[in-house]
Amino acid sequence: MTGWTCPAPLRDRPRVVMGHGGGGALSAELVQHLFAPAFGGDVLARLGDSAAVTLGGVRLAFSTDSYVVRPLFFPGGSIGDLAVNGTVNDLAMSGAQAAYLSCGFVLEEGVEMSVVARVAEAMGAAARAAGVEIATGDTKVVEAGHGDGVYINTAGIGIIPDGVDLRPERVVPGDVVIVSGEIGLHGVAIMSVREGLEFGVDVESDCAALGGLVRSMLAVTPDLHVLRDPTRGGLAASLNEIAAASGTGVVIHERAVPVPAAVANACAILGLDPLYVANEGKLVAFVPREHAEAVLAAMRAHPLGRGATVVGEAVDAHPGLVVARTALGGTRVVDLPIGEQLPRIC
């Protein structure tokens, strides 16, 4: 059985379930045990937010993502904003400034042209704000009842500056973990409008393009170790992916994690953990300790990093495992989610 690979995810599921798209353990197994063996290739095996490749002597970041959020419009954004900002952010996590995007629309028969126009206008505005050009695209139409109005796929490319090498394998014990601001806003905003829930205060998505924030951090030092935008699976999923890839342990301090009151209240009512709720305009950074104070100051000077906070550190103990120090002085394991708490958030 030399070279044998399992052709399907390991959790004995003969069919795809929603959790396979949730950014948790089921998603990881689908990629690692089905797609990666089928496609092969060293670049794909790195499984970053974007692929760092060299072409003609130039280091490029290349990323693609699909957006199936429901509803199409929500407090703080729309599927059009997500499609641009999500791909721009994936490129930014490699240190790249996004240059060009592609855009593929899958439209459901019967969707109003006014809805499609609103989405397209939102995409155009988001692209201009992020300093990126939508350079090519495609449109397909599916029969009524075979979609939720509009699905979007975007791909993007950007140039990685010299001296920048962002990947989890560079994380070492002693690195400081910084989160750029309050977590959980996007997931709660989507849930509130989709399910008609009210939490006593309006919650808006944090959807934003993070390229400018990353550039301000790299201006302090190109020697950042890894960046991730904690979207599906939330902060917990990103920390677990980094811990597993780096072979280090991660300790976070629960009281230091910036959770806004509205998110905390919503999660308490629904039995959710804010660490697993999606974000669309935040990043988590592992920074060498000697640069942490200066990087934190630069983040707080940027509009998208005003709430930046040190939440933990990489450690020698429990390699590959994320633990949280609780307010009561105990510890708990923060594991990779199996599926997803909130479906269809991006």
From TrEMBL:
What protein is this chain from? Hydrogenase expression/formation protein HypE
Ranges of residues in domain PurM-like N-terminal:
48-160
- InterPro entries noted in UniProt: HypE, PurM-like_C_dom, PurM-like_C_sf, PurM-like_N, PurM-like_N_sf
Name the encoding gene, please.
hypE
- Domain PurM-like C-terminal, chain residue ranges per copy: 173-318
The UniProt similarity line reads: Belongs to the HypE family.
A Pfam family matched in the record: AIRS
SUPFAM superfamilies per record: PurM C-terminal domain-like, PurM N-terminal domain-like
